[in-house]
User: What shape does this take?
Amino acid sequence: VSIEVVDDYRGILKNQCPVIDVRSPDEYIKGAIPTAINLPILNNDERQQVGTCYKNEGQSAAIRLGQKLVAGSVRARRVSEWASFAHSHEGALFCCWRGGLRSRIAHEWLAETGSIIPIVKGGSKALRRYCLQRLEASADHSWLVLGGRTGSGKTRSLRQLSNAIDLEQLANHRGSAFGGDIALQPPPVSFENALAAALISINHDRPIVVEDESRTIGRLALPDRLFASMQRAPLVILELSLEKRIANIYDEYVVNGVPSMFTNALGRIRKRLGDALYRELLGLMEEGFDTGNKESHLQWIDSLLTNYYDPMYDYQLEQKSARIIFRGTVDAVGEYLEEQVITG
Assistant: This one.
C-alpha cells in the first residue's frame, strides 16, 4: 500500500487537522501540537526495550522485537483505537517523532483493516521546527497591548475582539499569583506550538491584540522576540473603578474557587506583602471561606488590590507611559481597539 505523506505544516495547524501521535506517552507529555491525541504504538516500557535493542543489535532486530512485543490482542486493541479515532475525525493523520518507522508501521497495520490515513512528513520534529519559525516571524507583526489594573476585565474584553490572541488561555493560567495551578499548565513545547497555531490562524495584515503580560505566565515563558515586540507595542489602558474590580475578582475567582489555592497563592507572595498584611489578608480569606461571608472576601480583595497589586501595576505602567495611546472604559476601549484592528 502506497503511503501518502503530508508536509503542509501550515495547513495542519491552521485547519486544526486531527493527529494520531503514536509516540510513547513519555515523549508526548513533553509537548505536541494542539490537535494531537496520544495513541502510542509502543508504550514507555516497550519503547525502552526496543531502543536498547536498536543500539545493541541494529534496526532489523529492533523491528522484530517491536513486532513481538505488540502482537495479538495488544496490537488489535491499538489498531482499533486508531481506527475509531480516524473514523470519528475526518482528515486524521499519523505522526511520530520524525515521520519514520513508527508512523509507517502504524499506517501499514491500520491499512490491513481497510482504513488508510496519511502520515506527517518529518513527524513532530518537523512540526516543531515550523512552529518555532512562526514564533520567530511573529516579532515582525503589528501588535496592540491591552493593559489595566488587576480585575479590570481585560481578558473578557480581549475575547470580544476580532483579531486577538488570549495568551493566558493558551497557558492555562491567569497571570497573577492567584492565576491558577501551575501543575495544570501545558508543557512549554505544547504552549509554544499552540501559540504558533494561533498566530497562523489570525490576520497578520491587521494589528494583533494581546493582554499586557510579564515575561512569564505561571511557569511558562513567552518567546524572547515576541515578548520584546510586545514591550515596544502601543498600549491601550482599560480603566474600571475599584468597586467594580473587586466585584469582578469575587465573581470570576472566588465564587467557585478552591480555598487552598488562594491561601497557597497568598503564601507565595508573603515576603512581598510583609507579615502584618499577610496575616490580615489570610484571616479575612479563611473567614470568608469558612463562613461563606461575602463581606470578608470583599475586604481581603480590596486590601490586596490597594496595598499590593495596584501600587505594583501603577509603578510598572509609569515605566511604559510613553507607549500609552488610549485610556477609557470597557466600551470605549473595545470600540477603539476594534477600529484599530479594522483600519490597520
Notes: The chain has a mean pLDDT of 94. The chain has two domains: 5-131, 141-343. The CA atoms of residues 237 and 327 lie 5 Å apart.
